[in-house]
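ok here's the first one, seq then C-alpha cells
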Amino acid sequence: MDPYREYQDYVVASRLLVASGLSREILSLSQYARLRLRRLELAQAGRFAALEALDERLRFGVWSNPLRLKEFLRRTAQAPHWASPLAFEGLLFPEERARLRYPGQAGEYYLGWLRLPHLLMAPRAFEEALKEQEARAEALPLFLNAFHRVPG
C-alpha cells in the first residue's frame, strides 16, 4: 500500500474517533512514520502483544480488515458522519474537500468499506467489493493538507 494513502486513511479514522470523543490524538506524518517503522520491527521480532497495542494507536487495518472495521464501527456507531458520503466529508477541512474530484468522493470511498464485514461469508461478493474499493482508491486523490503544504 502507498504509505501516503495509509497515512491519509489513518488521519480520517483518527478524526472520526476525535469527533466521537473517543480519542484526542492525531499523529503528524513524521510521528506516524516513526511508529510505522516501530511496528515493522515488532512484527519482525514476533512481539505480538506490543504490536497489537501499536496497531490500535496507528488505526492499522481499520478500513481494510473486516474484523477491525467491525469493532471500529461498534465504537463509532453514533457518529453522524456515517449518514452519507457528504456527511462523512464533514471530517475534512474545506480545502481538503476542494481537492476531491467531486463532492462525496472521499465519503463514498470510506463508506464503501462498510460492506466488507457483512460479506465475509460470501467470498465472491467480498472479492467484488474489494475490487470496487481498489478502483475508488485509485481515483481518490491525496487530499490531506499535510500533503499540500506550501513552504514559507
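and now the second one, same deal
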Amino acid sequence: MDFFLIFSGQIILYIFLFNRKILVDKKYQFIFLFACIVLFALGDILQNTNVKGGEALKIPLLQWGIYRIFYFIFVKLYKREPKDTFGSMDKTLMIDGVFNALFWFIAFILPLALVFTNKI
C-alpha cells in the first residue's frame, strides 16, 4: 500500500513530464487545486491514523505550488512560457532546461524532506 501512496504522491511530477500544458491551463486550475487539497487532507488523515506512506499524499499540493511559483517567475523574467527540453540538444533552450531541471529537483526533494520529517 505504501508504494501506491508514494507513487500517487508524485502525480504532479508525472504530469509535468508527460503533459505540462494542463498545469497552466486556466480551465484545469480549480480541478488541480481541489484535487491537491483533497489529497492533502486525505494524507493528513492517513498520517494521523499511522498508515505507512499516507503522508505522501500531502506532496502534490506542495509540488503544484512550487510549479506555479517557478512558472510565474519564469514568465515574468523571460516574457514567455518555458518549453519542454526533454531530448532536445538545442542550445537556445538552455534557460528552459535549467528551469525544468531545477523544478524537477526541488519539487522532488523539498516536499519529500518536509513531509517525511513531519515538518508539514
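notes on #2: The chain has one domain: 2-116. Residues 2-116 form one domain.
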